[in-house]
Amino acid sequence: MPPQTQRRRRTGHHEEQDDNSRHRRQSKRAPESDDGSGPSENDDEQDIDMDRPAGADNTSDDQLVKKLVRYALACEYARIPIRRDGIRDKVLGTHARSFRRVFDAAQEQLQKVFGMEMAELPVREKRTLKDKQKAVKRGTSQASASSRQYILISCLPKEYRTQPVIGPSRIPSTAEEAAYVAFYTIVISLITLSSGELSDMKLRRYLTRLNASQNLPMDKTDNVLQKLIRQGYLDKIVERVEGDEDAITWCVGPRGRVEVSPQSIAQVVSEVWRDPPDDFDKKLEKSLGVRRTGQASNTNRDRAEEEDE
Amino acid sequence: MDEDQDELPGQYNDGNRAFLQAFFARGTMTFEESQPILAAIFTAQENEDIEANQITQGDFDSYVSAASAAVSPFDLEIRSTMHQTRKERVYAIVNTTSDPMTQLATLHSADEIAFVKRVIDAMFEKYNTPRMEALCLDEMQANKLRVPSRPENEDEGVENGETQAQQAPKGLKSSEVETMMRSMVDEGWFERSRDGFYCLSARALLELRSWLLESYNDPDAEEGEWQRVKFCEACKDVVTIGQRCTERDCLIRLHDNCADAFFRTRRQRDCPKCSKEWTGKHFVGERAVTETEAYQRGRRRSGKAARHSNMVEEIMHQDEEEQENEDEGEGDEE
Question: Could you state one GO cellular component term attached to this entry (chain A) (predicted)?
Fold first, then answer.
């Protein structure tokens, strides 16, 4: 489904939201909908439960919303994107047609209760010449495709995004997570400021200067880079060059682009510079293609509101 | 976007959401840990600096109860328990259902999960006998569990009630055992003591409480029969570290913290059931091992190296043998 339609449909939020809270209260009153506390619970029963027969339609919609919210939280925990196919398999089951309705209601709950929302990941860009040619042949343009993948991002206002509140997760350990976040933020900043791509050689040179060429606190640098690719923070593009070594280019991956916004990069850069020269802001804006004056982290909010119009 | 106030309690706002996010990232929270977080939230809300020490227990309680109400529709619950050794209450977000979704939430492979299951089994079965309720194990013992003993048939998963054991079970390498045990500590499921024993953390006890009961206790047990999971006479939470009655067959157990308060309200320091004197010298948890003469002797002899020897295993094993002989002496717990 093209993103266009998705956005339009979002206008339906408010009515649906009311409907939904009614369902919620109903289900709270009906203790038999409590499907999990029994000692014999297992996956199969859960599946059956999802396909609860008609007649309990309201409640089942409600169950689906709950499942989707839990699925989203679980995916984020492992830094796996929330895939639309995954939602279909693990959440909707036979109710595949309710996708939009359930998705919107779950989005609503995530925002209202957790201060988070599912943000669609951008499509992996076609970087190599070959890929681009292939795309042209197939007649698909980059703009129209949807990645069908989402990640959870915080939609809290900036004031709440202070270190004590959103400090690093304790999984796998606070120190390791902090180091990991710091590392990918730096690498993504470097790539972004080099107009979106960095040759392998240049990246390695930067890493050497950071004394991170071989090892990082958690693992070998190469392993960490692999993990960053796997989790979508970075993209590594390998182009075969005849009679020569492969040309390797590093780009920012879809998760990286959503999680590490130009605004965060601007903050990192300012922090590194401390005492910036006069035309610093202007140059930074230009490199990042952003306005730096406004409330940086509100962009997600703003975007959501624009979409609602 | 304005809030739909009519189903979330009171003024559920961004502050509550921020608190919930912080809670999620940490998994557990104590009042003390919450202070800087709430201070930052209040600072953001009130536009003036609030210091961590201005945050009261009441502030914390109200945020916890709001968060708890907000997440309950998603089969999540905030439960709390007194930490068995530190004197503080630990709060944790607990999953009240297990479903395929939760499986994703574990970052470990099926083999690793199976290993953790074996470790917990060992804590509650092998190293938890009427004579010696150690309920913990050291690294040497964990290492012995790295390979599954026999093909597991319909084993239940640790926290997921899953069916992951379907592929041929593989073991872990020694080095992986070490990493795995460490990451279980880092992730807050196990705690490691100064003497190198691993036991379940407060969070694990909260999350696994009903699972532990199901897995290790016999629902048809007679009144007064020894059960693997036991509860504190005072606070009714699970005891894996604490004190036990001098009488071996008496089932009264108390947490160390609870014992003090418990006997303050009684005239005599004796067991509420069998009235034997409560010495506080009979233990549940690692002290059931470390307070034995054999352990003390071994440590004096080998110093720090004790950690890498089989001594603990020998002490626990010896205990098993004695038990099989069913001697009726008071035993080697002192």
Answer: nucleus
